[in-house]
User: Which sequence fits this backbone?
């Protein structure tokens, strides 16, 4: 892949006039680069922009991040998904405060040892924030370079990424390493795009791109087909009692760990089963109404959801719910906005957490 060294100059020239205007590039401190790169994992740039600004307004530096309460952190992250990213940010911040006096280590080898920072993120921080000449190989970079070299290796394999990183290390410019890495990222996002036909006629590397010259851009990069997602059917129950809604805290490990959710039962349940469930919680249901169906797609799983709204008796006892082992809590609609992190998987039903009970038909009274 030594001949690929010829891409450096045209790529940097293209970047100087075509780079994306992104907030984290205006002041690329190590902290800003770190936060932006973690947010950008598995998430579109447009979706990240607002989260990035809000996050920095609340947690402007590493010390603030290290000492933030987890629920507040998760609330700031709400909607971005992959919540372990946020937890690892806090874990890493604690280590940075403890071991590096609150300053991000200016070493690729030290960066990669921090929780949640892999080879790509370490390369991005090292090159962009510190000017260290190391590559940052993500999906965009893999796509660009495999097309330029007509490399048909499976890019889902870790070995392919390692090989690409080793070869790019040989051609990294000694100066402007961060610009070179960002140029590859931008080219992959804007020209050598992931979905649809690449815009080869405006690509600065077209004259030396073997996949383009050999008419193979539809075959490269190669990926092993993904396994089919598992499908899980659920019945959600929005329970309103005295103007407060019931939330359930998920287990500390596994999917959406530690997040608050709308209570649910596995499978598609009848109204009768839903009412029985509510009674088992120690509540007396007053009326019930079906809500629209919804679905949410995770990387390897798909939730298909039915849902009901249930009004519970204001005077009912709820001794089961107060059992801390059950991890249930009644909250006001306002508290779902700024105190309790609710995953975007339930976004179709957030409006029903906030609607007054009298918005629902009393024809469903029991």
Assistant:
């Amino acid at each position: 892949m030594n001949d690929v060294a010829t891409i450096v100059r045209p790529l940097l020239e293209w970047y100087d006039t075509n780079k994306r205007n992104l907030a984290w590039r205006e002041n690329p401190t190590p902290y800003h680069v770190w936060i932006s790169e973690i947010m950008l994992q598995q998430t579109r740039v447009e979706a990240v922009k607002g989260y990035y600004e809000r996050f920095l307004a609340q947690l402007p530096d590493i010390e603030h991040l290290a000492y933030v309460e987890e629920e507040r952190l998760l609330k700031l992250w709400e909607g971005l998904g992959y919540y372990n990213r946020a937890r690892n940010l806090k874990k890493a911040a604690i280590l940075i405060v403890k071991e590096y006096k609150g300053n991000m280590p200016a070493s690729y080898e030290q960066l990669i040892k921090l929780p949640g920072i892999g080879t790509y993120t370490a390369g991005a921080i090292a090159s962009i924030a510190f000017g260290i000449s190391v590559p940052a190989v993500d999906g965009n970079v893999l796509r660009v370079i495999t097309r330029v070299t007509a490399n048909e290796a499976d890019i889902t394999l870790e070995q392919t990424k390692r090989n690409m990183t080793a070869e790019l290390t040989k051609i990294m410019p000694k100066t402007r390493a961060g610009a070179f890495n960002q140029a590859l990222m931008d080219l992959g996002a804007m020209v050598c795009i992931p979905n649809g036909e690449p815009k080869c006629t405006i690509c600065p590397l077209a004259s030396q791109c073997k996949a383009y010259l050999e008419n193979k851009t539809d075959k490269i990069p190669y990926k092993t087909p993904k396994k089919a997602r598992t499908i899980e059917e659920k019945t959600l129950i929005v329970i309103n009692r005295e103007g407060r809604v019931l939330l359930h805290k998920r287990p500390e490990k596994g999917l959406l760990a530690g997040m608050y959710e709308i209570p649910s039962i596995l499978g598609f349940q009848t109204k009768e089963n839903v009412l029985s469930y509510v009674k088992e919680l120690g509540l007396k249901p007053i009326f019930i109404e079906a809500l629209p169906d919804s679905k949410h797609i995770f990387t390897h799983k798909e939730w298909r959801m039915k849902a009901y709204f249930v009004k519970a008796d204001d005077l009912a006892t709820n001794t089961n719910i107060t059992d801390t082992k059950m991890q249930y809590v009644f909250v006001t609609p306002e508290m779902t906005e700024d105190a309790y992190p609710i995953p975007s998987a339930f976004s179709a039903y957030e409006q029903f957490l906030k609607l007054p009970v009298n918005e629902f038909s009393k024809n469903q009274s029991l």
Remarks:
- The two ends are 72 Å apart (CA to CA).
